[in-house]
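Sample A.
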Amino acid sequence: MTVEDYTTYTEVDENNDITVAAQHIDIDTMNKNVDSYVYKDKGIDHFDGDFEHLVDVHLESADAYGLAVFWGITNDIDDFKGLRLSNKDHLSLYINKVSGEANWKVKLYERNGSGAQSDITNITYEDTWIYLKIKRDESVGTYGRIYCYIYDNSAREAGDLIATLQIDLSEKEDFRYIFAVSSYDLDQTFEITAEVENLNLQEAAGGQQLFTLINMMGY
């Protein structure tokens, strides 16, 4: 269970706003008028049940309405505004600056065809790191529930928890692609500067599908 190597991901960066290193990505004044993202094809139905992903995000600075996606799983490739407008199913985590405030808005989001739902919180942290745990539990409710736990310490202990987001999902769906970061192209020039690192999918060697197969075989 090691952190992802971002240099093995595919980078689309039309304005040269993204710098990728092995375990770290810098976003430098990325506007909301570009299609830019870093993703990896994990194979059809790779994310096929319960999961728990960890990722660290540094919210450095942004204009009001500056926005980026810092985690997402999909079955299609596009920036996340493109996915939303074309009604492509996905799960994602957005962060943007709130107009007129020192707050950041963190949004956990599900798109299911033309329908969508989200859970949102504001955090007052400026120019600091937050530590995310994103978890899907398919045993909860009819179609499962997805959570995002937000911590102020990398240990992610109970005392470090500053907010929890959750959505009761509207369908059970398997996903193929993981996005480490993405723009949200609204043809606007609001900028965001941030960092993301240490994406850990917490999968056994061989990936989620092998892990699921082993469980099914009773080992």
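Sample B.
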Amino acid sequence: MKFHSISLFLFLVLTSACFAQDNEEVDVLYSHQLFGGINLHTQGGGAFMNFSKFQDAFHLTNFGLEVVFLKHEKEIRSFNPVYEDSKSYVVGKANSFFIVRPSIGREKILTKKLRKSGVQVGYSYSFGPSIGLTKPIYLEIGYPSIPYDYLVVERYNPDEHFSNNIFGRASGLKGFNKMKLHPGGFVKFAMNIEYSNEKSRLKGVEVGAVLDVFLKDVPIMAEQLAQNNQFFLNGFVNIYIGKRYILR
């Protein structure tokens, strides 16, 4: 009788343990992750993609690509003082400025999520070339004088174009065939907070700073109207979504 009672007890314990194990969330060891999103920084914004490979449970190697636009700190938007239907333009701006940043870096996870509603915290650093691109600004210029008889699209010239003959900006597509390259490099550091409710999904924010250095001053503004720079230090926030997976 005692033997049967012990056997029954052991059977119930083993059954309960197996049942509990089947209902626990399996801690899958993922090998890679892919995510992307939008970038907001102190001189503009952009978008990015990032591919990561896990080296172990707490360390990753990151490969990224980011495209952002930068505004000069002295930019002031204005309108033609006479025509109510005029288009806005930036006083003295000679070129739009974009940066393409291919990167490689490392990430360390400081605290993993202990439950679905928790957060994962880590930090990362990366570096790579800064491929700067300037696109000339084109404006709609009125002739012969106010009131205008006709409008002509012309590349901005600070010696010829003033508030009395600038009707407004031209199409943003104008000037891509005259883009110029400005080589440089960058370094970036960020803190990462990831809060997705699913282990295979990514959702989070990165907060950090990035320094771009170019070989010479980037001509965003007309030189006689504002000083240009070759160094750009910006704080940023990245908002992203993505997925973890196992790459066979």
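B remarks: The first strand starts at residue 32 and ends at 41. Confidence is low (pLDDT under 50) at residues 6-25.
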